[in-house]
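Protein in question passed on here:
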Amino acid sequence: IAQAVIAGDDRSGLAALVVPTDGHDEQAAAIAVRRVNLRLKVTERIRKYAAVQPFTIENGLMTPTQKIRRRLVLRAHASTLERLHA
């Protein structure tokens, strides 16, 4: 996974927006999420996730210093997160 944002404020579980590493597909992302979940407490585990396009400076989802603009990512992918939390 190249990039990820976890969401779950005021929700019953956590969801993740993940960007697979170049050359890898969504199945590789699923394996990575499962591996991470094995090391986490039940309440910390990612219940659902969605593969999304990379967060970039060009699409406004990263700062010029390569920091993810979490609030903007959550806003841009609000419908995906609603589906994951449903």
In short: Strands lie at 3-7, 14-19, 46-51. The two ends are 24 Å apart (CA to CA).
